[in-house]
Design a protein that fits this description.
The protein contains eleven helices and nine strands. By secondary structure, the chain is α/β, with parallel strands linked by helices. It has a seven-stranded mixed β-sheet with strand order 3-2-1-4-5-8-9, sandwiched between helices. β4, α9 and β5 form a beta-alpha-beta unit.
């Protein structure tokens, strides 16, 4: 139901910054009491406050869980590029436990302010930068790991993804790419992921709202040169991340999207669009 509601209202609110900022503010601060309760009683917190619930109405986690069930190993190595408060980390760990799998999750993020290439009067983007810079997000991430007793299962790397991955030779069965949305950075993340994913392993990428072939009226390369984080296309009425769409196309071809994700499986150094199997 939330997914349907989001699909219907997002084109409307995306075009009206005042409405978008108002809804974002209400959702942000209404979550504060539950956030305090969770900290006091050592419960995980994923909600509006600190923008920690980035899943609402998207059904991404359902797709990730389906992919996890396809991994035929007793010990699963996971790499998460872009972690934030650990929403995906928690869901991956719970699904692996549910399927009696042992695991290690490498959590790779800068947990710091980042280049804001969108409108400076956006409440959400400005608040993201603020709560990352003051360590509120990182502290909640550690709290969530402790609340779920998985701190010892997580390898925490506080670095830029390319700085770490270009020197790493560790291999992974599942890689979640959810870091920068800018073209060059996404290309680096995808290139590194292709090198270190195991055979039969999966690469899942977030913020992939539309495939390249559906945007014939747009010069995506020009949008990427402007380093736009997000762009609203009036023709298709889609709000999307140009850098992600173009980087995916140049790395894997014209992949289908499912709930704002792409998913490929590696087999003999070839990458198959796995979204059609989900």
């Amino acid at each position: 139901m939330l997914h349907i509601i989001r699909t219907l209202i997002e084109p409307i609110i995306s075009k009206n910054l005042l409405i978008l900022n108002l809804i974002s503010r209400i959702r942000y601060y209404i979550g504060y009491p539950r956030y305090l309760f969770s900290l006091k009683f050592n419960k995980e917190y994923i909600g509006g406050y600190l923008l920690s619930d980035q899943e609402a109405g998207r059904n991404r986690q359902k797709i990730i869980k389906q992919v996890i069930r396809k991994i035929d190993k007793d010990f699963v190595r996971v790499l998460e590029i872009g972690v934030y408060c650990g929403q995906t980390t928690l869901n991956i760990s719970k699904e692996l436990k549910k399927n009696n799998k042992d695991f290690q999750i490498t959590c790779l993020d800068i947990w710091d302010e980042f280049e804001n290439t969108t409108a400076t009067n956006s409440f959400t983007h400005n608040k993201l930068v603020e709560v990352l810079k003051n360590s509120s997000v990182y502290n909640l991430f550690i709290h969530n790991l402790k609340a779920n007793s998985i701190l010892n299962k997580c390898k925490i790397i506080k670095k830029k993804s390319n700085d770490y991955l270009r020197e790493s030779n560790e291999k992974y069965d599942l890689i979640i790419v959810d870091g920068s949305h800018l073209y060059n950075e996404v290309m680096e993340d995808l290139g590194n992921s292709k090198r270190i994913v195991n055979d039969k392993g999966f690469i899942i990428g977030d913020d992939y709202e539309v495939k390249y072939s559906k945007l014939t009226n747009i010069n995506i390369a020009e949008l990427c040169k402007k380093r736009l984080d997000v762009f609203y296309d009036k023709h298709t009425k889609i709000r999307f991340h140009p850098g992600v769409t173009l980087a995916v196309y140049n790395s894997f071809g014209d992949l289908d999207e499912i709930n704002g994700l792409f998913c490929v499986q590696k087999s003999n150094n070839r990458y198959t669009d796995f979204s059609v199997s989900l």
